[in-house]
């Protein structure tokens, strides 16, 4: 760690500052006196194809900081037997963790304060609706739901019940993203003129999908490489530079590979071929709002394609062009800064125009985060702030609904 001195100090994110280096430790200290929230997990399955609940949320809750704020007291899966199986698989205490097979029963339990949903996106609405209606605190992983109608219904129910609802757009709180935001808004490079983003990902391969992600080819399910992969990326980008001004944005989509091969990840054999109605390429061009750190008419340009980049190119290259210099975040291993895009280092650098020199900008995980698997680190940050009621540390349902509407407009080809 880096000891503080009177000339260094910390910024509003708890990041150490020096004249030329930036070292980010983004987790606030846990409140030791807070009674842990009695928490029900929906979707922690012993047989799930994808395991974000197990890889992200469970380690975060069971960490030292997480245990001070959360106590797992219930699991809800497709059946009581499935919940019991998960309790055994993850070695939870069967005397204190109650199994549920129906989300309505979970919602009716007065001994549950908070519900976390990690199901497939087309099950989000039906699994959290009763808990939101009951006024419980609810954390829904992104995307919110498979349709805007369901998103709007959840908003209306939450307003009526007073439920506090967060959505898992954790990327905007990843230390590297917070560091880019800090450098931009420090003013040392002047105001933002434009920003360019090139991202590749959403799935591991451009040609294939595994059987468990076959639904990524079905737009109606609501979970796919655009809404999830691109959705996380464009959210953390706009959390730094501002939301594109509606009416100035133009989006173009393409389905480059309309026929998708489904490949068994174990045998590498093609087991099926399906037609896809989900774009695998999306480009967006628009203007950013004027601000103290952004000039009028500043431009955002984004290019995203499903799958791998050209060999040797990073999966993510994000440049912020300012009056006196430029900031670049490069992530060779992926666009998922909220998850596991760190197998190779994600780096930040600054080009100072006056001296034509490039400076490395340091960032780091907090001590609490370093105790965890990478996928759980940004989840832990948002869960801690959600439990503490810190609105600057998580994304509310209202704000996430705005992002869902923006993505829907771009996917539908509407710029209004």
Automatic annotation (TrEMBL):
Signal peptide: none annotated. GO terms for molecular function: nucleotide binding. Residues 53-168 form the Gfo/Idh/MocA-like oxidoreductase N-terminal domain. Residues 175-330 form the Gal80p-like C-terminal domain. SUPFAM superfamilies: Glyceraldehyde-3-phosphate dehydrogenase-like, C-terminal domain, NAD(P)-binding Rossmann-fold domains. Pfam families: Gal80p_C-like (PF22685), GFO_IDH_MocA (PF01408). This is Oxidoreductase. InterPro entries: Gal80p-like_C, Gfo/Idh/MocA-like_OxRdtase_N, Gfo/Idh/MocA_oxidoreduct, NAD(P)-bd_dom_sf.
